[in-house]
Design brief:
Number of strands: 10
Strand content: 25-35%
Largest sheet: 6 strands, mixed
Radius of gyration: 26 Å
Helix content: 25-40%
Order of helices and strands: HEEEHEEHEEEEE
Distance between the termini: 79 Å
């Protein structure tokens, strides 16, 4: 035998169902509002040594707009960067999102250019370079930055990603 709700009981269940629907719609709307208030993440840069990788968002980034020289100098001094161990006999691979590659990027070692501007999504450098003082490397650790901007003449810096490479011997 089935029992059907009649009279007042039917109204109680349908109003409860409406309240739940309204609450669900409100929760979804609030979630979308919170998401729209979030900052857009910056493109990523990645360093890979052997089977180990680290990636990071930009230290300095202004949604692709030109950065002031003073901002860049401050970001180059940033000590709170991700690090990775590097065996000098290993190859170090630097990868960037295509969005960065389109604008061109240069690899900096301790704030000085190490490579020409590239529009590729990755470059490979021997690990020994980063600990060789002849190239401006440190003996046990080196800060390497990827500077976005540099494709074409007169282009301006628009982003900076930094990593600390620690000697693993």
């Amino acid at each position: 035998m089935t029992s059907l709700l009649r009279g007042g009981a039917a109204h109680v269940h349908s109003s409860a169902r409406r309240r739940r629907s309204v609450a669900a719609i409100g929760a979804v709307s609030a979630g979308l509002l919170v998401l729209s208030a979030c900052d857009k993440p910056t493109p990523l840069a990645t360093v890979t040594v052997g089977s180990n990788s680290v990636n990071t968002e930009a230290s300095c980034y202004n949604d692709g707009e030109e950065l002031k020289q003073s901002q860049l100098q401050g970001c180059l001094k940033d000590k709170d960067v991700k690090s990775i161990k590097v065996d000098p006999d290993e190859k170090v691979r630097f990868g960037v999102d295509p969005e960065i590659a389109e604008k061109g990027w240069t690899l900096l070692m301790n704030g000085q250019p190490l490579t020409e501007s590239s529009d590729k999504t990755y470059v490979v450098i021997p690990g020994s370079v980063f600990f060789n003082q002849q190239y401006g490397g440190g003996t046990n650790a080196t800060t390497v930055s990827l500077l976005e901007g540099g494709k074409g003449s007169g282009s301006k810096a628009t982003g900076l990603w930094s990593f600390k490479l620690e000697k693993d011997s």
